[in-house]
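Field guide to reading this record: the first block holds the primary sequence, the second block holds the structure written as discrete tokens, and the final block holds curator observations. Each block starts with its own label. This record concerns Pyridoxamine 5'-phosphate oxidase-like FMN-binding protein, catalogued under organism Marine Group I thaumarchaeote SCGC RSA3.

BLOCK 1 — SEQUENCE
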Amino acid sequence: SYQISEISINGVKLLDRRKLRMKITEDLFRPILITKGRKTGKEHGVMLRAVNHNGKIYFSRHRPDGDWFQNAIANPQVKIQYNGSVFTGQAKLVEDEELSKKISELKYPGEERAKEKRVTIEVTLD
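BLOCK 2 — STRUCTURE
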């Protein structure tokens, strides 16, 4: 298939698809995190509560036993589907406890569960 990547008239660039990119602007949102199965290699999607903080996307849970969590650690190339767009990125475990606490506070503002210890994954979008 053919796709227009750039439109120019008399040398004036009107559209450059390479620079046209949707952004996630919400601080707290519910996207679908798509990971590659560590055993099957197949893509798996799960809707999760996510935090957008300092240009990175964070997902957390109580324990590291969840499939999406283990898949993201084993295969860090992930996708985030949100508002009709798919974003690709690299996931990594957050080892900074202060950052994990901050993400919990942002994820559960004013809630008691914001104080619970969690494991957190940070996604840097491509």
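BLOCK 3 — OBSERVATIONS
The first strand starts at residue 6 and ends at 9.
The chain has one domain: 22-125.
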